[in-house]
Structures are given as C-alpha cells and as structure tokens.
Amino acid sequence: MTLEAFFFYAFATLALGGAALAVTRPSAVHAAIALMVSLLGVAGLYLLLTAEFLFVAQIILYIGGILLLFLFVIMLVNLDAGRGLRQFHRRWPVGAAVTAVAGVVLAVLWSRVQLPPAQRMPETGNVELVADTLLQDYLVPFEVVSLLLLVAVVGSVLLARKRA
Amino acid sequence: MSHFYTDVDHFALLPAILLALFGCAVFLFDFLLGERSRRWQLALVLPGLALTGWQLARQGEIAPFTAFHGALTIDAFGLFFNWLFLLTAGLVALLSYRYLEVEQEHQGEYYGLVLMAQAGAYFLAVGTELITIFVGLETMSISFYVLAGFLRRSRRSNEAALKYLLLGAFSSGILAYGFSILYGLAGSTYFADIAAAVGARPAFDPLTVLAILTVSAGVLFKIAAAPFHMWAPDVYEGAPTAVTAYLAVGSKIASVALLLRLFLGPLGTARAAWEPLLLVAAVVSLTVGNLAALTQTNVKRLLAYSSIAHAGYLLLGVVAGNATGLRGVAIYAGAYVFMTLGAFAVLLGVHGEELGDLNGLARRQPAVAAAMVVFLVSLAGLPPTAGFVGKYYVFLALIEAGRYVLALVGAVYVAVALFYYFRVVRCMFLEPAAEGVARVGLSAGVRVALGVTGVLTLGAGVYPEPLLQWAVRAVLK
Amino acid sequence: MHYVAVSLGLLLIGTAGLLLRRNIVIILMSIELILNAVNLNLVAFSRHHGNAAGQVFAIFVIAVAVAEAAVGLGILLALFRNRETVQVDEVDLLKW
Amino acid sequence: MPWLTALLALPLVGFVVLLAIPGRATGAVRLWANAVLLGGLALAAPLWTAFDRSAGGYQFVERMPWIPSLGAQYLVGIDGISLLLVLLTALLGPVAALASWNAIAERVKEFYAMLLLLQFGMLGLFLSLDILLFFVFFELVLVPMYFLIGIWGGERRLYAAMKFFLYTVAGSVVLLVGIVALYWQGGQQLGRATFELTELLRAQLPVETQRWLFWAFFLGFAIKVPMVPFHTWLPDAHTEAPTAGSVLLAGVLLKMGTYGFVRLSLPLFPDAAREAAPVLAVLSIAAILYGALICLAQQDWKRLVAYSSVSHMGFCTLGLAAMNANGLAGSVLQQVNHGISTSLLFLLVGYVYERRHTRQIADFGGLAMVMPRFAFVFAVAVFSSAGLPLLNGFIGEFTILQGAFVVNRAWAAAAVGGIVLGAAYLLWLYQRTMLGDLRNEANRELPDLTAREWATVLPLLGLAVAIGVYPQPWFAVLERPVLELAGRLGR
Question: Is C96 inside a domain boundary?
Fold first, then answer.
C-alpha cells in the first residue's frame, strides 16, 4: 500500500464516517462536530488532489466560517433542547427507499463510466493557476457572485434582525 | 479596456449591471434615508427597469453575439426571456407597493431583492457556461428565499421561506452535482465544449446519462414539475402574495429558459436519453397538478397546483422536439406571464386568498371579477385568450411529431382544469358575498397591473400575430 | 475514480439526512454535505482534466454554500422568534 | 358593404356600449339591448332577398388576414345552409331579449351583456368559413351561456351550469385536437398551412386519417347536439336555464352541433362519414325513441320540453346519417323548425312559470278556459312540434324520412314510431295542461298573453305556418349546397 493510498483511505474514512455520524447524531452540537470531521476529511482529499488553494479555502471558509455559524445558531436557539424528541420523520421508509434507489442507480451508472483520457496539470503553482483561471475565464461569475453574497448578507440581516 | 473585459463584454453585461446598480441604490437609499425613502423606492425601481429595457432593446438591434469567451450568448432567445423577466419584475413592483404597507413590512430591501433576483435570472437566459448559470441561478434563488420570508412576523411566511430554502438548496446541490459530471465529461464548463464532448460519446453513455439524470432532477425541481413539485403548494401558499406572483412567474420561466439552454444546447445530442424523462415528468405533472387542484380551497394553492400543470404543458412543448414545440414553449411562457400575474393581481386587489374571500366579487368589483374570468379562461386555455394560443402551439407540435395520444391527454386535462378554474368563477359570480365584506379600493399599482395583464391576455388571444412573430425569432437554433 | 466514489457516498448520506431527519439545522448540514460531494467531484475532475476550471467552480460552490447557510440560519432565527421549534415537521402550518 | 361583418359586429359593439351604461338604469339597458338585437334582425333580413339562390359556393364573402403565421384568416360568408341558421339566430336573439323584459329583475345589465355576447358568438359560428375562427366562436358561446344558466337559472342552476360547461368543453377539447390534426394533415397535403375551409376541402386525406379525425370531430359535435349517449347535460341545462337561455340553448346552440356535422365533418371526411353513417343512424334512432319515451314519464312541463329536444334533434342527425339530398335538406330545415317550435314551447312554459312559479304539470289543467289565446298559441306550438301536416315540423320530418327510407327502410320505420310517440306525449301534455276542468283554483285569475308576449310568439307562429304551408322557398335556398354535399358524399 502506497503512502498516497493510505492517506486516501484515511481521509475518505474521515469524510464518510463524519458525514454518517453528522446525519445520525441526535444532538446538533455533536452533529456539527462530526460535520467538521467530515469536512476535514474532504479537505485532506483536496490536498491529495494537489488543490492546495481549495484545501485552505475549505478549512478557513467551511470549517472556520460556516461551521462557526452553525454552532453560533445552535447555541443561540438552544437547539439541544430538542434532543429527547423523535429524530426521524414518520415517513422515513419512503425517504430511505428513495435514497437507496437513487444510490443503486447512480452507483451502477458510475461503475460503467469511461472518463475521457487524463491530462497533466500545468506546472504552475496551484494558487496562481486558480487565480489565473478565475480572473481570465470566469470573470462573469466572479462578478455575479459578489451580487449573490450581497443578497445573502442583506437577506440574512433582514430576516434575523430584531423587529423595530 | 483589457482583453479580459472588452466593449462587447461590457455591452453583454450591461442589463445585469444596471439591475444590480439600481438594486444596490435601493438598498443604500433605504439604509441612509430610512422611513422617508420608502415612498420613493418605486420611483427608483421603475427607471431602473426602463433603463434595462433600453439596453435590451439596444442588444436586440444587432446580430446575436457571444461575450466572455462564450460564457454569455446574447441572442433572440435570451432577449425574449429577459423581456418577460422585465415585464414580470415591473408588474410585481407595482403590485407590491400597497401590499407591503398593508402588511406593515414596507421595507426598502424588498425592491432591491426584486431587482437582484432579476439580475440573477438574466444569466439564466443568456448564460452559456455552467458556473455563470449556477451563480446566476443561486443569486435569483437566494433573493427568492429571502422574499418568501419577507413577512417576518408571519409564521406562514417563515415556514414557506424555510421550506423553499431547504428544498431549493437541495435541488441546487443536485443540479451542481450534475454540472460537476458535465465538467468531468468535457473538462470544460463552456457549453460549446460540453456539446462537442457529449456529441462524441455514444448514445446512452453512462456518464451522459448520469449527468442527465441529476441535471433534470435539479431543473424539474426549479420549474416545479412532478415528481419534484411538492414544495410549490406550500411555498406559494405561505409566501406573501406579491412574492408568490413573482415566484410563480419569474422563477418558473427563468428555470424554463435554463432548461431549454441546457437540454437543447450541451445535451442536445443526447436527446434520446432525456426525452423519455421529460415526457414522463410532463404527463405526471399534468396529472398531479390538475387532479390535486380539484380539491383546493385556497386560491394561491390552487394556482400552485395549476402552475405544476402548466410546467407539464411547457415540458410537452420541449418533448415534441420540433421548431413548433419550441415556439410553443416561448408563446406559452409569454402567455403564462400575462395570465398568472393577472390572477395574482386580482388576489392582491381583493386582499384575499381563500375561495370564500372571492364570494360575490362580481357585485363588489365587477371589473375585477370580469378580468379574473379572462385570466382563468386563459389559464384553462380556451379562446380567445393568450393561454389558448400557447396550448394550441403545444398541441400542434405534438401532432406534427405524431404524438397524438399526448396531444389528447393534454387536451383532456384542459377540461379538468376548467372545472377548478370555474369554481373560482362560481364564487365570484354565483355565490352571495359574506356579510360585512367591504369593497376594497384598488391601489394604482394593482389597477395598472390588472390593465396591462388583462389587455395582454385578451389581446394576445384575439390578435396573436405579434406574439407569434416575436416567439418565432426566440427559438433556439 | 475512487474520489468519485467518496463523492457519491457523501451525496447519498446528505440526501438521506435531508429526507429523514427532522432537525432543521441538521438538514442544513446535509445540504453542506451534498455541496461537498459536488466539490470533491469537481476537484477530482479538475485534476483528471489538468485544468483549474473545476477548482474555480468549487470556489463558487463554497461561496454559494456560505450564502445558503447564512440565509437559512437567518430564516431559522426569524422562525424561532415566532415559535420555538426547529423540528421540521412541527413546521406544520403548511402541509409538508 | 361588409354586410356580414356589420351583422356580426353589431352585438359586439352593442355589448361594449352596454358596459358603459350604468347598471342602475335598467330601463335604458333593456331598451338598448333589445334595440341592438332588433337591429341585428333588420340587418339580417335583407340577406334573404339578396341571397342568390342559383349561385354555388359562398356568398357575401369577406376576408381579412388574422394570424398569418398560422394561416388563419377572418373569413366569413354564407351559403344556403348557414343563411337559414343565421336568420334563425337573428330572429331568436331579439325574441329571447324581449321575453326577458319582466322575467329578469336581478343584475339586468349583466344579463343583457351576456345575451349580446352570446348573440355575437352564435352569429360568428354560423358565418365563419375559417376553421380556427369557427372553433373560437364554438368556445366563445360557452362562457355567456354558463353565466346565463348559473346566475339567472332555477334552483339547481349551479349544478346545471357546470355540467353543461364541462360536457361541452370535454367534447370541444377533443375537437380542438382534431382541428389541429386536420390543419397539419391538410397542410401536408396542400403544401401550405391553412384553416380555410374551401382549401381544406381540396385535400385528399387517406381514409385512415379521415376516420380518426371524423371521430374526434364527432365527439365535439355529438355532445353539443346532443346525441345519445352524450345527452345527459341537456335536461338539466334546459330546465334550469332562464327562458331566454332555454330559447337560445334549444333554438340555436344545439344547432351548432348539427351545423358542425354539415359544415365540417361530412364534407371534410366523406369516406369516414359514409362508414360511420349506420352508427349515426342508430344513435339518432335511439335518441328519437328514448327521448320520446322519457317525455311520456315527465312530471315537469319544462323538463318534458327539454327531453323533446333530444328526440327532435335525433331527427336532424338521422337526416344527416342518410347523407342524401332529401336527408340533408330535411335535416337543415328541421333544425330551423326545431328552433321555431321548441323556442315557442319554452317561451310559453316560461310565461306560465312567470305567472304561477311552478312547472309541475299536475298543477295545471283547464288553462284553456282562463287563457284562451295562450291555449291557441300553445296548440299551434304543440302541433308544430309533433309534426302535424300544414305546419313546419311535418315538412322537415317528412323530408328526413324520405331520405332515410331510401337508405334503409328499418331506419325510417323506427323513426315513424318516434313521430307517433312524439304526438302522444305532446298531445297528452296539451290535454293535461289546457283541457279539462279547471282543477286548481290558483289558476283561475291567470291573465292571458300580453302585447309584449304576443310580439315574441307571433313571428314564430307565422314562420311555423309559412314553412308548413309553402316550404318551397326554404328548400330552394338549400338546394345547391345540399346537392353539392350529397355529391361529395357520393349519394
């Protein structure tokens, strides 16, 4: 087993195991911590894929930003008060069946997939490469995403602020 | 300007820039001036829309072109849908004016979000690159999530926003997953490259099928087609009525534009794989929408189910797979804008949403009731209204494609739809009014909106030629 | 290919969480899992194709995830002010 | 002069002007509506003399582009068949309006607005020579009729209005698919897409296609006629509708179905029509006999008249099924006759109902003693409806029987049975209501026909007698179009 393979399986286990825990834990705080583990695993996979920029972005934005936001809200509304309650929908078999069917279909299809031939990454550093691509080829979404974030900021402030 | 951002690029982006600028201006004025600005916000929105319209008109004067290395394609198709967005946003702004005051949530952010949603929709109509489309879609969707929850005091509004967000974000995730597969397939996010890559693969290639499955799930959700429709009735019912109007019209036709761009563009050569999917979705949508609408007592919910059925008709036009079908989709989309906004304008005008609220409307406000009859007849698809022309084209397209059974199914559901639409008519004309219902004055905005939609719905039915000519040009090659 | 399998796993776990759980915060987390599945796909394909477009796409997906989470939690707070619950099916004024 | 357009536009203009009259000025509303409809009659009447009986094809044709992208035009014109139906419509419109003068006290303005809109739709249908235009008018009449029944109808008006509406729409959506398919198939044949009737008649459709299209059209028209087994909407709608509604429904709207057969189904799909003739005939005979038998069991005066329509329209469709000159001419004339005699019956029922507010046959008897003039008119109406010689019904039914006899004697024999039954229930109705002793004291003080009521029944009476005594001019108008059609059908 190569070192890379070892790391891949380790990170994959973290990602999937954390994810599985996150959606099954009754406590929202525990779920958030499990989610963090999962996100860390994904970040590790990014590193293996030589996407250093995303590795950093994942850690800072996701784990530093989004998760913090989640924890903050969980604390604010005292979510764990609901721990003793039923955690799953009454109609959970339907959801489980849908997921299972989708999973089987997608897995079977994926197992037959033939990807186009692989290409080598350019030799430039990852961060430069990403920055170049972003600003040359993806200028429009870059501009639009600022709108998106503006809307999100205005919207969340509007919705969450106390009433006058 | 640099080669990253040429004059052409700028010209292509200008309508969105204007919308964003005016949106920001609304946010800013509200922030700086507070209460005092609120009376003038409409005076900011309408010129913004007018300037946008001017730019669209300028774009329409020249031949189709692409910008940003093919990320945006300004063609008649995109312009057609953008004009529809413009009309929608303008009418929604007019409708919202008094409504927000009555609901005591008259806040400036509202109009800013309306413009931002339209800016996002702009990229759905002209975007030919996955990331642009995705970000545009999300800009629009997030604006709608916030708008749906705009009545913060109302639990129904909160819940509608929450449901919309949870399911909307889920569907965006699935759609993005599909996009990631398309990228994996082509190694590029530009439609031209993806189309070439898909075309080079054999029919029913697993990777293509995977992309189609996930992309269609996401898009069908966005246009509220069965079996991904379950959010629509709740969200339509719970959201503020003016927002529901925007949601039902703006979000739906923007997503239809997205669907056409994706399925006729990069996925065009894989037609054999997606056509059956859309066909099933269309028939199921017609069935679910029409049958569920039969028992509704809330008019907003009824219109939600009917909009699911309309998604079915739109999909039938795509399934037909010929030029007539695409023309039909464009005409149907146009008619849908007029008649649906009109119906919601009536609901806003009478300040009610239950069937019972409409009882005796013909006595209190005969003109409003008469206008509602026109909209309902058009929604059902009877002549001489715009809705008939749309359905006519869809049926014609199906018959040209030899799909007689589908045409017949679509036609039979017209009769079913009439049953529930005429329950509304019955309430307005044949039932006595409840005690103590006062005649409500119509705001100027509602009057204008009713007039415009009424004239367009009836006019496009009696003399459809201009609409047809316009729609013919808008067909994607 | 292995990365794609992990991604599919994340997608399915996220879907299952979304369809089965009642706690709104955990549903929002499930959506984050789905978006991570997307990103893993994108980055893996980016490596495979030797261009950075997939990574750029992933950045945008992260931005979208941030925006959705912020607005989602904002709505949650507004809802919580009106009624003290975060279980989905107690959000029942409208039929779910 | 664009004569037909003027005739068609008049009620529409009247409708728009009416909307401008304040609803409280009921007198002005009534006057205006009646004046407009009478004006329509004045415009239509000269067509009778101006019409060139020796010329084939369509006359007074006017054409304007409407939807060029679809090949649909505003194309109106008349031949002998539509001439008669246009005249009938133009006559029954003012009759219905005048008959409602006192009967309608509620929402007067809306009532007359609907009446004018209805008149517009009915005239448009008989005038249009473009199939899309035809369909638009076919649907256009539904909405005003829905309101006429639903607002001013009897106790079960909501149910009846919805039933009428849904039945007809269900048929017409199938008709629409048929029209679209015809447009497409015909366009393929002709090399250009068009809705123009005379153009489409040139297309040589394969029999298989004709068959599908014929049955699609059949469903739309058969529900409208209505033919058994699609007739169940009719008794409810006719019974619950206000008098004006019943008059127009029975007098004109039902003819839209038979007219659809004559104008579209038979000439466009002659091969399929010939094949379907036995089915049409059997359904027609079933309608004749079934309608008559049901009438014998009716307790409700108006419902009896309603069911008699099923029976009488059966004769019209039987004439169509014969598909020869006699059958077709008789069918068209019988459509006019039925319009006259059934309208008379509905008017008279309506007048009695206005006086007594009951329609139960058992509540009456011996009315001839208190209302002799009424009884006289009613007698003529009953005789005309029952097909007694020297009155119009006889001429129509006799011609149809002649036509049917040539094709199949059994059909004619069964139909004769229907005539006998018809005479039986009508005369029995007359005996139970008009003759005998005055059993019910409430009927003693009933006033006889007023001048206004006379004005509504006299023209119909005159026509019933005129057609019955001297039918030649009526057949003369029909001769050319009917021979042409029979030629197309190969009979």
Answer: no
